[in-house]
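At this stage, I needed to go through a protein sequence along with its fold in C-alpha cell form, as given directly below:
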Amino acid sequence: MRVLIIEDDSGIAANLYDFLEARGHAVDAAGDGITGLHLATAHDFDAILLDVSLPGLDGLTLCRKLREEARKDTPVLMVTARDTVDDKIDGLAHGADDYLVKPFSLREVEARLASLHRRHAGKLLPRPLAVGVLHLDPRTATLSCNGQPVKLPPKCLRLIETMMRDPERVFSRTDLEGAVWGGEPITNDTLRSQMYLLRRAIALAGGGDPIQNLHGLGYRLVVKAASPTER
C-alpha cells in the first residue's frame, strides 16, 4: 500500500512510518493539516492515517475538504485520543471510513488500513490513465502512445501503470519491486531488464524515453506533452 500519515506528534509519526515502511509499504508523512491536505489531494494514496488534532487545519475539517472540495474518496482511518461515541460519530460524519482511539497497536493500524484498502479497491473499477502521450486502460491491459498500441509483457504493463498513477514521483527500486512483484522472489537484474523492455517499447512507438533513471534514487516518469499534430 501507499499510505499517507498526517500526524503532528513526531514520536507517533516516526513509529508509524518506520513500522509501515519495514512492512513493505510506501509511506509519506505530514506534520500539519495544510501540508497533509496538499499531499492527499495532489497524489493518489491507498489509505490515509489522519489525526484529529492538527496545527494549521484540524483533521475533521481536512477530511471534509478532502471529500467535498477535492472529491477524493481515498480511505481515511481517523485516530484521536477522544473516545466518546459522539466523537466517533463526528469523525465518521466528516468523511472518515474508520476510527481508532489512541493509544493503539501498530499491527492493528496496519490491519485496519489494509482492510480499508481492500474494500475500496473492490468497489472501484480501474480508470483509464493518461500521462502526456501515453494512455493506459487497466481494464483491458492496453497501452498506447500517440494513439498507437504498445505491446508489452504483463510485468512491464504493471510497471508503467504504477508510474502513471503518480507521474513525476521518484520511485525507488523497492517501491517498484513491491508494486509489481510483491513478495515474489526476483534477482537483482529483474527490474532493470523489465525497465529496459518498457523503455524500448515506448521509444519504438514514437514516445521517446519519458522515464528518467536517477542514480541512487530510482525512476521517474516525466510528463511529455503531445505536439499539436498529435492531439
